[in-house]
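Hi V.,

You were right to ask for the full record rather than a summary. Here it is.
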Amino acid sequence: MTTIIRWRSNRKAGHELTSLDADELGALARDVGLSPDLLTRLTARGAGGGGELPRLLRAGGLVPERIGRTHPDVMRDMSIVCAGCLVARRCRRDLDRGWAPVVQRYCPNTETIKALQAERCHVVS
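Predicted structure:
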């Protein structure tokens, strides 16, 4: 039942977005700091889009909530990149298998995650 509810919610959000004309879509996208294309793509992915990021961060020894407090802009950017990623299904599958190092080979957030890990190590040292 949860899957059906989520599917209906995603369809409704997508329909609401596609019912906007180009000017309205552009204004909404500007309000949230995204391009219209990216906003459309993120909406199509649904509310669960980007859910892999916290899992990947934790697997790398990072605390997503702490990053959100200390580097909110970085966390927002990584979340947007993750939510728009085209290999999310593969990422989710690899994380389910415990293969976080494999994910970091293709994740578009890898360099940022490495920088956050280096910063954490630098602070701890």
